[in-house]
Design a protein that fits this description.
Blueprint (H helix, E strand, L loop, with lengths): L5 H6 L18 H6 L6 H12 L7 H9 L5 H10 L3 H17 L11 H10 L4 E2 L2 H4 L17 E3 L4 H14 L3 E4 L15 E4 L6 E4 L4 E4 L5 H10 L2 E3 L8 H8 L6 H4 L6 E7 L5 E3 L21 E11 L5 E7 L2 H13 L5 E6 H8 L3 H14 L4 E7 L1 H10 L6 H9 L1 H4 L2 H8 L7 H5 L5 H8 L3 H5 L7 H7 L8 H7 L11 E10 L3 H17 L3 E10 L4 E10 L4 H24 L4 E2 L11 H5 L2
Parallel strand pairs: 2-4, 3-4
Antiparallel strand pairs: 1-2, 5-6, 6-10, 7-10, 8-9, 8-10, 11-13, 12-13, 12-15, 14-16, 14-17, 15-16
């Protein structure tokens, strides 16, 4: 029912903001690129429709404009289905019908009045870029997080420059008006909301200036990870970025940016050269000033934001033409983690990570149903539980191949990816089960001489993979997976478009912990406590990934909880589970100084990583 009921579709929006970047080459929602307010993006329209059905907002002039501007082009269906299998076009059609009925019945179309504060905002920004319209406010009022609820602001402002940000902050100070700063994505703890205050949306500030000579990029606070990576790639360079829809400035400030490339490129202060801020008084400063606040220092305590980051000069890194991505399967966590640590200590590879089956199966499968079957098949039929991801040049790839016989390169990934429908077929799997010998099935299958057998058995093709998606989207998926980058581990790791699929079935709450990599039993113990706590509260959960840091001395660990935010009982269980695991992590840190919960790094992402990894 949720796949055809517009209200249920709208309520299930994850707020991951993938509809705000052109990650599939489809283009963006046409009016959104001009209007910039979240309300004009598919995500905002989903919120508006759900709020109308729930009688939380009236029909206003702005709402009518939002509805009339939608062309029903279907871009949102392609983007959202790729990530979550939701079909937002049904919501857009229902939203249009709702407003049409409202007009036919000659019901009032409201226009909120302009008070003194809003007039002052508009005097700074222009009339278009500050609003108190309920149709705008509702799309800045909530997300799927377990602790947020509905927190509608009184105003939303979209500044276009650092000076405008400064003037808006000064106005808030003059009127004693609270404000929150919004990036692109979801904030599971509610930091981007400001009930009865102002939300400052930085989406308009999307400047990217590449300094090729110095391998840096100066980016505005509205620049997404995907768009920065795309610009860097045009120059033969790479940025260390997080999820594709995450805004670079906000992500760096909040958590320091960590990715699989943090193995080589580091995290926190390793990622930038300089940054510009607007502080709480509206003063503009950058970190090269001698009297600037010391954001390099780290304090083990919950910290407020140092200000609004309005520009960051990030480091870029060179790429070579011989880079390759490899997946190395393992049957258990200690073996996989030891291998990844060994690679990091030997300086082998740029990107490194120990991935769990939930990540792997979700990433490569186009639907949740196929992902479940793939996960089961990897575990039960192939004997695989984890895989180490390595991206490096040909020398790194040669080193890895000399260390293990079981390696999945991009060709093997292409065969499995485009042959998934047949891979989970019982007829083919019987051949795997019949394999005899002392080796695990994956060890046999990944021998180079087995590639022709896999090719013949799975018959990989874009047509085959597209056959498992909704019929009306099959042609699009066929064309999409005909692109070579969709099976290229380097490209997929750079742009991370499939990481957004982690929240495909339910909203994901990710826990990030820094751990000492020489204490693998301790890491296993932490994973077990995550699992036990979630199981006790009947919350879906799974290990996510682990990436070595600082030549294998430390690592960043992610464990994921999944919850249906529209289910009241499940949302409450999620809240209790988060609180319980938080208490356990506090105890774990007390007993193990090498363990750090990202709770204490939050808002200190500009600090030196040594401050939280070693103190």
């Amino acid at each position: 029912m949720s796949r055809i009921d517009p209200y249920k579709i709208a309520s299930q929006c994850r707020h991951y903001a993938m509809c705000k970047i052109d990650f599939l080459g489809t283009g963006l929602c046409p009016p959104a690129s001009e209007k910039h307010y979240v309300s004009y993006f598919p995500q905002g329209r989903m919120d508006i429709y759900a709020a109308l059905v729930d009688h939380k907002i009236p029909v206003t002039e702005r709402l009518v404009d939002i509805v009339d501007s939608c062309t029903l082009c279907g871009i949102c269906d392609k983007q959202c289905y790729f990530v979550t299998e939701l079909r937002p076009l049904k919501v857009m059609e229902a939203l249009r019908e709702h407003v049409a009925r409202h007009r036919e019945r000659k019901k009032p179309i409201l226009s909120p009045g302009e008070d003194r504060i809003l007039k002052d905002f508009r005097a700074v920004l222009g009339k278009e870029w500050a609003s108190n319209d309920p149709a705008v406010l509702i799309s800045y009022a909530h997300d799927p997080g377990p602790f947020t609820g509905i927190q509608p602001p009184r105003y939303v402002a979209l500044p276009g420059s650092t000076q405008e940000v400064s003037e808006i902050v000064k106005l808030c100070r003059r009127y004693d008006l609270p404000y929150a700063v919004r990036g692109n994505g979801s904030s599971v703890m509610g930091f981007v909301f400001c009930e009865d205050g102002l939300v400052i949306d930085l989406h308009r500030m999307q400047e990217i200036d590449i300094d090729r000579a110095n391998w840096t990029a100066s980016v505005g606070p509205g620049v997404s990870a995907f768009d920065l990576q795309r610009r860097a790639a045009e120059e033969g360079l790479r940025a260390n970025v997080a999820e594709p829809a995450a805004l670079v400035c906000a992500n760096l400030m909040c958590s320091g940016i960590f990715s699989t490339y943090s193995n080589a490129y580091g995290t926190a202060a390793d990622n930038y050269v300089n940054a510009e801020f607007v502080d709480g008084d509206g003063r503009v400063f950058d970190l090269m000033q001698r009297d600037a606040p010391n954001l390099f220092g780290f304090q083990h305590q919950e910290s407020p934001a140092p200000g609004i980051c309005t520009r960051v000069d990030v480091r870029l890194h060179p790429k070579t033409e011989d880079e390759e991505g490899l997946l190395i399967p393992f049957a258990d966590f200690p073996s996989a983690t030891t291998f990844a640590r060994d690679l990091s200590q030997r300086r082998i590879g740029l990107a490194l990570a120990v991935l769990g089956l939930e990540y792997i199966s979700t990433f490569i499968a186009p639907t949740a149903g196929v992902a479940r079957e793939v996960k089961r098949s990897f575990r039960e039929d192939l004997g695989m539980e984890y895989a180490v991801l390595m991206v490096g040049d040909r020398f790194a790839a040669q080193a890895v191949r000399s260390m293990t016989d079981s390696v999945m390169d991009s060709n093997f990934l292409r065969i499995l990816l485009l042959g998934l429908p047949r891979m989970i077929n019982e007829g083919w799997l019987s051949l795997v089960r019949d394999m005899e010998g002392t080796h695990r099935p994956y060890e046999t299958l990944l021998k180079p001489e087995m590639a022709p057998f896999l090719e013949a058995a799975l018959k990989p093709s874009p047509d085959s993979l597209a056959g498992v998606v909704d019929p009306d989207l099959r042609e699009f998926f066929r064309e999409l997976y005909a692109r070579p980058e969709m099976a290229d581990l380097v490209w997929l790791n750079d742009f991370r478009i499939i990481s957004s699929r982690m929240g495909r079935e339910k909203h994901v709450v990710a826990f990030i912990v820094y751990v000492p990599l020489d204490k693998i039993p301790l890491i296993q113990e932490i994973n077990e406590e995550f699992k036990r706590t979630a199981d006790e509260h009947s919350i879906k959960n799974d290990y996510g990934f682990l990436t070595p840091l600082d030549l294998g001395k430390r690592a960043v660990l992610e464990y994921d909880y999944y919850g249906d935010h529209t289910d009241v009982e499940e949302a409450e269980r999620m809240r209790q589970a988060v609180i319980a695991i938080g208490n356990l992590l506090e105890e774990k840190m007390e007993r193990n100084p090498g363990v750090k919960w990202i709770k204490y790094v939050f808002n200190q992402g500009f600090s030196r990583k040594e401050g939280f990894l070693y103190t």
